[in-house]
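pinging the channel bc i need a second pair of eyes. not urgent but kinda urgent?? the chain im working w is below, pasted from the shared doc
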Amino acid sequence: MTFRLPDALQTSDDAAAIHLLKRYFGQPYLSPGCADGAYFDTWATDIDPFRFTADDLIAIKFLSVEAPKTAVRALLRDRADEFSRLLVELGPDRDLACEQKPLDHGWLGWHLMRELRTIPGVGTTTASKLLARKRPRLRPIWDSVVAAVTDTVQEQWEPLREALCADDRALHHRLLRLRDRLGLPEAVSALRILDVIAWREGKDRGL
């Protein structure tokens, strides 16, 4: 399993990373011209961490994902209690960099991802964006652009955890410093900072 840093984070100079983040989130935050995806992290102020809501289905639309009708029914009605129980079992949000044990496929986070993917029409990208709404510090967003930039097409969650934990969580702390330098809200997690840098860099490459 591998994880490759985006080019903008390959050196200690933050200039390239800051440029990419400003283009996405706006400067100041959510100023005219920001990317639609910038609204994902703070859409709705009363996010329920233990139940999927209509606001979550709206939020993922800002990331160019449309929840299928099957997901609307499953998450908001037919299987709402089941997914609420799984979110409770997974526990509260926490930083992926603080997870000490490898995320093997018996881990509760993987179980929840698998159950989301049992909903017809919900693939890995949609499932990751839904779970990232509930656990933004723990679940990275997966899509083909970010996977190509970070060399995580086959496996993302565990290689990223290892990278964030390395060197006394140096990468994790750097991502938070970048967030703070731009004045972004705390709701924008370290994982999202990395996701945006990788995605914006990949789009610039034409991926």
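so The two ends are 22 Å apart (CA to CA). and The chain has one domain: 7-204. — does that match what u expected or am i reading it wrong
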